[in-house]
Design goal:
This protein is mainly alpha-helical and about 240 residues long. The chain has 3 domains: about 1-120, Multidrug-efflux Transporter Regulator, Chain: A, Domain 2; about 120-180, Multidrug-efflux Transporter Regulator, Chain: A, Domain 2; about 180-240, no CATH class. About 50% of the residues lie in helices and about 5% in strands. It contains 9 helices and 4 strands, in the order ααββααβααβααα. It has helices at about 25-30, 40-45, 65-80, 85-95, 125-135, 135-145, 160-170, 180-205, 210-235, and strands at about 55, 60, 125, 155-160. The strands form 2 sheets. The chain has a two-stranded antiparallel ribbon. The longest helix has 30 residues, at about 210-235. It is globular, with a radius of gyration of 20 Å. The model is unreliable at about 1-10 and about 105-120 (pLDDT under 50).
């Protein structure tokens, strides 16, 4: 649970405090709960003002335990409650020292009480995505041309685009380019279609509670298909991944 409102001393210089850790160590800690988080994601959250690590005289980031807890809280709010980063930051900034941030009650994305629209997921702009992943416009254009990323009608991207783009960039380091990844895109679409086919009857059921379970069931099935896909790839390669 978050107990502080500031992630480290803003603009501060790291001391010899043994509790301060490197960004690599922070990444390993966060990956225990958030396997897909990357260093680029942590840097992006820093650039958005959600955490302010200290810096060594040589410029290296050093994170305190409160910084790590704050990052985990931000990622949790995105994953579990679909809150945009702007809203999360406003909540954190509004806290007084020592105050605990109230955690929203679990609910389906898009649940509303007053009939107004509620964001269903964090969104990032094109410039934010480029900065978070560290790629140029032409690279992003190429990824889009192969259907690996698709902008929203307003030109922005949903929260998952950052993770997808980071993974595309990681694979590129091994010479696996966008044209090679089209098969993965096609496979993902087929798997999503299968999940949607299974939950479709729940979405139109007359019982409101049954309809409410459709999203949870879709997430559960999506997780199972991802695990199966990973296991099949490992079996085909004759390797076992951690």
């Amino acid at each position: 649970m978050l107990h502080t409102t500031s992630g480290g001393a803003p603009g501060g210089t790291a001391t010899t405090d043994s509790r301060l850790t490197s960004i690599g160590t922070v990444l390993n800690v966060l990956r225990e709960e958030f396997p897909e988080v990357t260093i680029s994601k942590i840097r992006f959250l820093e650039s958005e003002g959600l955490v302010e690590p200290r810096r060594t005289p040589s410029g290296y980031r050093k994170f305190s335990p409160d910084d790590v807890e704050r990052l985990a809280h931000v990622l949790r709010m995105q994953r579990d409650h679909y809150l945009p980063l702007k809203v999360i930051k406003e909540q954190l900034d509004a806290l007084e020292p020592g105050e605990t941030l109230p955690v929203p009650a679990p609910g389906r994305p898009g649940d509303v009480e007053d009939g107004t629209d509620v964001p269903t997921a964090a969104r990032v702009g094109r410039d934010e995505l480029l900065a978070a992943v560290g790629v140029e416009e032409d690279e992003l254009d190429e990824w889009e041309s192969y259907g690996l990323l698709t902008p929203l009608p307003d030109g922005g991207y949903d929260a998952s685009a950052v993770s997808v783009a980071e993974l595309i960039g990681e694979l590129a380091r091994f010479g696996i380019g966008p044209r090679h990844l089209r098969v993965m895109r096609a496979a993902a679409d087929r798997e999503a279609g299968l999940v949607d086919q299974v939950v479709a009857p729940l979405k139109v059921h007359r019982n409101p509670q049954t309809r409410a379970h459709a999203e949870a069931r879709a997430k559960e099935l999506a997780g199972l298909t991802v695990r199966l896909h990973s296991a099949l790839v490992q079996t085909a390669l004759g390797v076992r991944l951690p």
